[in-house]
Specification:
heterodimer; A: about 325 residues; alpha/beta; 4-stranded antiparallel β-sheet; elongated; B: about 280 residues; two-stranded antiparallel ribbon; 12 helices; 2 strands
Chain lengths: ~325, ~280
């Protein structure tokens, strides 16, 4: 049973298409990770689910209801922790939680009890009565998470919850998310940290250019690659022609599959091997054609490999590529109500 | 352990919408008052600026060679009504700033993602806050004027002043909140506040009567909303309250007290209807 279903979602900011036919199904009670570089459309998708943004077209279902038609009921059921922590610097942490409780119409007794629970659980008691303006990034993020959880939502949506956080805060947040995952709360988390999604997510989707390009359980996605990941360089700086020649050569070797030329990393070659013997044979095949092995690395497949396989570039390269294309001013303007 | 409890929503739904709206509106209003208590400088500046004006202008024109004021009032008495209205006007004009900052810093999104009974609570809380502050500042000016010997209105006059100020504050607050949703940022809103504030004051009867102005300025002053608020308050200070009395000798004709209040009411209702579609769109 799915708690969230997105079908054919399109959303543009002026000339920039943020979502390009996004389809997503998030199982009830799961921790679902959205992985993709900044600018891939993750935040836009989350803001649409939260009813903060209307799509240009498409269908959004949350908890069996049409979220675009039943907005208030949808809001009642979800907690949202935004990417940019929005807190009132003049209020204390406790006052902010009290305000949040009133916005969700909690009665006073329950509100006080719940606030105390969250203060204890997120280890905020030493600073919760200080003004929010004096908080570090980690403190703000924990307070924001407590705000999102105050009304015990069925669905918790977190947009890049650990970006720029210290190790302690990240550990507290990861611990809480794991606890919630075991307690029937559906969690949808966006991240561009591979290890975060790998560590936390039951299921995940990779988003690229506004649509899902791969989805499933992280381990299954890695297994689907069919072997270990090898990165090969025949020279320190190869060119396109040389890389293409090597690609043609090694794709015909038995036990080698999914050969990709990574232009961003000096035309290195990434591919999968079914066994270590294939690697041993590799240098023989290369030397026959007068190629040398300048560098070779061999590892278990990671989510970055899944991303690389799907897009032909690593997540970091995609991040850098998109950073240059984004119009932050336009995005900021569009995100303001 | 942190838990979630889906059945909780059903219990909470039993509370009615009015209670929910009261709860969210009072919480949002209280937030604005906490900000004021912890950062009171804007409150004091809003009182101090008109007071300085009162002292300086009253002194400046105390020995004016031409007797340009109607009746036998001193310039300080004449100026008092103008500054009371100016104080309320300035306060109301700033109403959009907290909302603009909430838009810019994303706090508005926190409010909009909550299941508010009505998103009008966001606007209503701002109106309650600004109205309270503007009235408080205006009454502080009234008290100081009284201490300086410029008089105190009768009870009837006091009610007239309160009603007049309320109408003006509602209208200008509505306008400012509308601007806060339309303009791209707080710099633009502050620019408009700066541009509007003093010219609107000078082009009203706050500092001089229409009879003292050149014709073109007299025309502007006689259609300026501030004038329609100043003159009833001036009457409340200096005469018995008679709303049938002619308060403005405008180039286009005479305007009595009822007309002044009616114009302010029409302005308030008109601005409300003007910004309503905008608020509905922005808060939808």
């Amino acid at each position: 049973m799915f708690f969230i279903q997105l079908r054919d979602l399109f959303k543009s900011y002026g000339p920039v298409r943020a979502l390009n036919g996004l389809n997503l199904e998030v199982p009830k009670g799961s921790l679902y990770g959205l992985l993709g570089p900044n600018g891939a459309g993750k935040s836009t998708a989350l803001r649409i689910i939260c009813t903060l943004l209307a799509p240009d077209s498409g269908y959004v279902e949350v908890g069996g209801r049409d979220a675009l038609l039943e907005e208030k009921e949808t809001r009642r059921r979800l907690g949202y922790v935004a990417q940019d922590v929005a807190i009132d610097k003049i209020l204390t942490g406790r006052e902010l939680l009290q305000l949040q409780g009133d916005l969700y119409h909690l009665d006073n007794k329950y509100k006080r009890k719940r606030i105390e629970e969250l203060i204890q659980r997120l280890d905020m008691k030493d600073w919760i009565d200080r003004r929010c303006g004096s908080f570090s990034g980690g403190m703000k993020r924990r307070l924001d998470l407590a705000s999102g959880l105050l009304h015990e939502p069925e669905l918790l949506i977190l947009d890049e919850p650990t970006v720029g956080l210290d190790i302690e805060s990240r550990s507290v947040i990861w611990g809480l998310l794991k606890e919630l995952r075991n307690n029937e709360t559906t969690i949808l988390l966006s991240s561009h940290y591979l290890e975060e999604v790998d560590e936390l997510a039951d299921e995940m989707a990779i988003i690229d250019q506004g649509k899902v390009i791969a989805s499933g359980k992280p381990d299954d996605l890695k297994k689907e690659l069919g072997g270990d990941r090898v990165t090969l360089r025949v020279r320190e700086f190869s060119d396109e022609v040389e890389a293409e020649s090597v690609r043609k050569l090694i794709k015909n070797i038995n036990g080698v599959s999914n050969v990709v030329v990574n232009q961003k990393q000096g035309y290195s070659l990434n591919f999968l091997v079914q066994s270590n013997e294939v690697i041993s044979d590799l240098s023989g095949h290369l030397s026959k054609e007068n190629f040398e092995v300048f560098a070779l690395s061999h590892s278990r497949p990671s989510l970055d490999d899944v991303y690389l396989q799907a897009t032909g570039k690593t997540l970091m390269d995609a991040e850098l590529e998109l950073a240059g294309k984004r119009d932050f001013k336009l995005e900021n303007k569009k995100s303001m109500r | 352990m942190i838990t979630t409890n889906p059945s909780l929503h059903k219990e909470k739904k039993s509370r009615n919408d009015l209670n929910e709206m009261l709860q969210e509106t009072s919480a949002l209003t209280w937030r604005l008052f906490i900000q004021l208590i912890r950062r009171p400088s804007t409150l004091f500046a809003g009182i101090l600026q008109p007071l300085i004006w009162l002292l300086l202008f009253a002194a400046l024109f105390s020995k004016a060679p031409i007797d340009f004021l109607p009746g036998d009032s001193s310039y300080g008495e004449f100026l008092g009504a103008g500054l009371i209205v100016f104080t309320a006007f300035s306060g109301a004009l700033n109403a959009g700033l907290p909302l603009m900052f909430d838009r810019e810093f994303g706090f508005l999104n926190r409010l909009l993602v909550a299941p508010l009974s009505s998103r009008s609570s966001i606007v209503i809380s701002s109106v309650i806050y600004i109205t309270s502050i503007s009235l408080l500042q205006s009454f502080a000016i009234m008290a100081t004027s009284a201490l300086l010997g410029y008089g105190w209105p009768s009870l009837e006059g006091f009610f007239l002043i309160a009603i007049t100020l309320l109408l003006l504050v509602f209208a200008i607050t509505g306008l400012s909140l509308g601007l806060a949703f339309v303009l791209p940022g707080h710099i633009e809103l502050i620019a408009i506040i700066f541009i509007a504030n003093l010219p609107v004051l000078f082009a009203s009867t706050a500092l001089a009567p229409i009879s003292f102005m050149p014709e073109w300025l007299g025309w502007i002053a006689s259609i300026n909303p501030l004038t329609f608020a100043i003159e009833p308050i001036r009457m409340a200070y200096h005469n018995s309250v008679d709303l049938n009395a002619v308060l403005i000798n405008a180039p286009y004709g005479e305007v009595n007290g009822y007309s002044c209040l009616s114009i302010l009411l029409i302005l308030t209702v008109g601005l409300f209807f003007l910004i309503r579609p905008l608020l509905n769109r922005k808060l939808a």
